[in-house]
Design brief:
Shape: globular
Structural class: alpha+beta
Number of strands: 5
Distance between the termini: 30 Å
Radius of gyration: 14 Å
Strand content: 15-25%
């Protein structure tokens, strides 16, 4: 598995988030013998190689995947902050930022 969601936002230093759990994404085919405890939030997804990155010895979701996973699960101002930080660093293209912003707006309408 890899660090993802809120935890990956923190590792990437994209916004002012302070996760209460360690978020991990594991493959859908992986069967765990235990839940991982109350300090972990387990997500299941089959990630593509381009959706995974490394920072030193830490394996986590890419910036784009991290922000996409966060839409709808954290306050929208934190998603906007992450999008702006990623754009300012050149970590996402303007078109990707626009796509993720549109997705955030659709989530807010629901």
């Amino acid at each position: 598995g890899v660090i993802s969601h809120d935890s990956a936002l923190l590792v990437h230093e994209l916004c002012d988030i302070n996760p209460t759990h360690v978020h991990l994404t594991i493959p859908t085919s992986y069967r765990m013998s235990r839940a991982g405890g109350e300090r972990y939030s387990i997500h299941r997804a089959d990630l593509e190689p381009e959706e995974i990155t490394r920072i030193g010895a830490v394996t986590l979701t890419s910036i784009r995947r991290t922000i996409a996973d966060s839409v709808g699960s954290i306050p929208d101002y934190l998603v906007h902050q992450a999008l702006d930080t990623a754009r300012d660093r050149g970590a996402i293209r303007p078109a990707e930022r626009d796509e993720l912003t549109d997705r955030l707006q659709r989530e807010l309408v629901k």
